[in-house]
Amino acid sequence: ELALKKKQEEDRLAAEAAAKKKAEEDRLASELALKKKQEEDRLAAEAAAKKKAEEDRLASELALKKKQEEDRIAAEAAAKKKAEEDRLASELALKKKQEEDRLAAEAAAKKKAEEDRLASELALKKKQEEDRIAAEAEATRKIEETKRLISIADKAFEGQKWQDAKNNYELALALSPNSSYVKTRIASLQNKLKSTTSSNSDLEPKKTPVSNKADTEFKHMKPKVEMDPREKEIRDILDLVEKSHLNYTAAVADELGSYYPEGISEEQYKSDLSGFSDANVTRRIVVRDGFASIFTRYHSSRGITYRKNGQTTTEKVWLAESQDPKLRKNN
Question: Measured between alpha carbons, how far is 145 from 138 in angstroms, rounded to an integer?
């Protein structure tokens, strides 16, 4: 029994030691497995973290590169857009400047053309005025020279110096070819000179009748055998005005108004005016308050033409102004 008990005790102790050993071994194995698992988990976690960090780094680098590329592309697009806008703005500014320059050039050219036109018109008007003044001066000179020659001729005529008188009358006629007075005197002197040549005797002063030619050329409301110098002067003024060789000024109107009486004085004659050589002429001198106006009607085969103070006018003016019933008719 003792041996059995000893054996049992030994078996028990051996079993306990074996169990203890097994428990220790299991504990150690478990601890080892746990540590291994922990190490593996640590390593896996580290690897995952490292992988995650690397992935995050790569993702960040990729995002950064993508952002940088997007920024580059956006910057290039913005720069290109800005360059295009600047180009268009520059072109627009250039076109605007060119249009402004074109308009300014056109305006300058138009202004220059207008200035040239006005200068040309002014020069023409000045020339016309100078020509008119020169023509008036020449007409006045001719009138004065004609008066001077007629005065000399009249004195020679009165002194029975027939040839001297004829020479001066002919000079006067060259200046005033329509002077009926001068024509009448020349015709009279031609008769006197012929008579002198045929009789071979001294000339005696004679009164010669007005020639038929002078009568038909000019029928005055008060016919005279010979025109006196004053009438001749008035006739010459009328002829110059009718032929537009003398402007109808206030001085001319006063001169005629001092000769003709107040009212309407009418005369008729055959025209010798260029363009109206076949016309029957009615001329009315209308005097109001000493101021005379000349109204003329030319009746030819081509029709009827009216003139007032040497300028073309209308029948309406002729009717309204040359036959005022309130004015006295002097013939």
Answer: 10
Tens digits of residue pLDDT in 117-149: 999 999 999 998 998 888 788 877 888 888 899
Which residue type occupies 36?
K
Tokens representing 245 are: 């060789």
pLDDT mean across residues, the chain: 85
191 Cβ contact partners less than 8 Å away, ≥ 6 residues apart: 208
Strand-strand pairing, 263-270 and 303-308:
unpaired
Residue 220: pLDDT band (50, 70, 90) is very low
Per the CB < 8 A criterion, the answer to whether 294 and 285 are in contact is yes
* CA distance linking residue 35 with residue 159, whole number of Å: 177
Which residues are 313's β-sheet partners? Answer: 306
- The CA distance from 201 to 58, in Å, is 155
* pTM for the whole structure: 0.36
